[in-house]
Amino acid sequence: MTGPRVLVAYGSRNGSTAEIAQAIAARLRTRGLATDLLPAGSVCDIGHYDAVVVGSCVYMLRWHPDVVAFLHAHERALATRDVWLFQSGPLDDLAETRDRPLSVPIQQIADRIRIREHVIFGGRLADGAAGALESLFSLGGLAGDHREWPRILAWTDGVAAQVAQRRAVLVLVPA
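^ thats the sequence. predicted structure below, dont judge the formating
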């Protein structure tokens, strides 16, 4: 029997969420989990994955459209797997100090697929980032890197432990 396979699928607008997803995938690999990292829009099939981590940038409370499409397209399969959601985007310390609920459409999907957990990580906005919204945030003094890497890696360690524990239970309980 082979070890568990994990998919990390993400949607990113300016690269910050992609970098978080890359760090999560790399950390899962160091914990012995076979892990694939793919943009959500390029995932065709999740049939051979035991667990899925899905991440999205969030702008104006909206998840990346590729992630929303991924969740809808694979909802039935996701409901039979362990799934964790993360979002990134707050340009302040509120991600670490205050819970923010999922938007209603994402919460409805999360309820149907029975996610294991949802977490919010701070985002990154470079000075002079392209786009009207980014320019407003930058002018408002919100540019900078608000990602807390130790927190992201600690959360990922928890995901890895849960995947490994779940796998151990499945191995111990014959079908």
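The mean pLDDT is 84.
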